[in-house]
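Tutorial handout. Part one gives the primary structure; part two gives the three-dimensional structure as tokens.
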Amino acid sequence: MIAGKKGSVFTLIGLYILTIPFFNGLNVTTYDNSQILGHFGASTTVFTYSVYIPIFSMLAFMPLGLKLGKQIRVRTMILSVSFLSLLFNTASLFAPTIGWFTLCRALMAIVSVIGIFASMVPILLKYNPVFNMALLYGILQFIQKGSQHLYQYIGAHFTSLHNWTFSVYFLNVNFLVCILLAWYFYKADVAPMKAVFQFDWRGWIIMILFLMVILFLCAEGQTRNWFDDPKVGLAAALLFLIFGVYLLHTRFTENPIIDPDVYRYKNVVIGAFLMFYIGIMNGTGSVVTGYMTNILGFDSVLGAQTHLALLLGLCISIPLSTYLLYKRIYLATIWIIGFACYGLYHVMLYLRFYPGIDSSDFFLPLIFKGLGMGFLFPVSLLYISEGVPPKLSTSRMMSGIIAQAVFASLLGGAILGTFISNMNIQHKTGLSQQLTATNKQAENQLASSKRNFVFMGLSDAEAQKKAEKSLSNQTAQTAMLLAYKDIYLVMSAICFLPIFIILLFKLWRRPIGKVEAEPIPI
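Part two.
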């Protein structure tokens, strides 16, 4: 019996490891973007599309990937998607243009979605009756979130060793390992959840059109200055039109991808909003890495060390939050801890954005961000699934994904970039207005810089221009610091607000309820 348990644990670990490369098909190449842009010589807008298209392809293909993951024989499916991922990933190395490169990455993202669902189904079927649902969600979240940050850190190191192709080769090794693991662990080639194949093709096409409009807004909204451009206004109007068409479509479809009936469950509505809210709080992490790279001039490896801090926070918080859920601690306790960790993360960065900020200043705040992620993500996924029948599991899953990934992370990230740019311009204008003859400190600094340039052999006119440019650059960096301080001050208030609401209205003073929906914790 002990040997059987040991074999069962060994099999479970092997099945979990098998899911990791499919989760990280795009994560491992996160830090390759600047090199890939230089390799293809594409414009910034075109390259922005090439970054977004694989992500949106993955999101768009999730409903169909979930269906296919249940229908086709598991061993055949895993071996096929591993081989196809290997093929498309390798093909991206030989792409002659940025368009072909984007197509290869998008195809790899699509087959990775099928790989995620196909590799998770045996775990859910074999161990779900044994595992408490909180344990199952906690383990899968730990693997997904933990491997994401580990792969981004490893990918940056592989890129720095030679060039962007090294991280692609590293991913190929991962898919080869998938083939070996599938060959070993999947002895029987069966479709464990096979049923009559029914899919909402019309609703899927409508959803793809909706995501294409969001893709346009994410890629070009900031460059077009949003609603100052009539095409952005037209795109926003199209979103409402497509949404209306989809609602009309659901009235004549038996099993739509997102069934409006799912919103009769109060926890789905509140859970989707909370996932959007968490996505907004989580999105400011890109601000940190952008500041480290673009303003402070840190290389990709130093910037990637932020993921180690996040990973450390996750290693502490996910096991702890899983244990608390398993022990049926009140939901309010977990929500408060998670929001408090995010609030402290933003407050600490607000206090640390000052001239002379160093990489070490980011480590502790990012640990708190990792803590917040580990407390909030598992409980959010469980809460939005609470009491939802299996028939509506895809609907509640897609509701959470669209709220968090599409609206909060992708579209919200693009809007946040515009907000930072506008704040930066305001601060730079205000600081520039202070560079007058009456500002003795600025005048002395200008004179000192000019003397240094003259000492270096420049003419009086050249030294004056160099000194003015140097002072202008310092003003620009100070303006950016002030803009980021404003962002993090506002975000800290946004993070602490839910805590006061939970305490004031005495919300969620109960443990997690029954979760019957198919547990796909993406």
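Part three, for discussion. The chain has two domains: 1-198, 255-430+458-522. Residues 203 and 256 are 6 Å apart (CA to CA).
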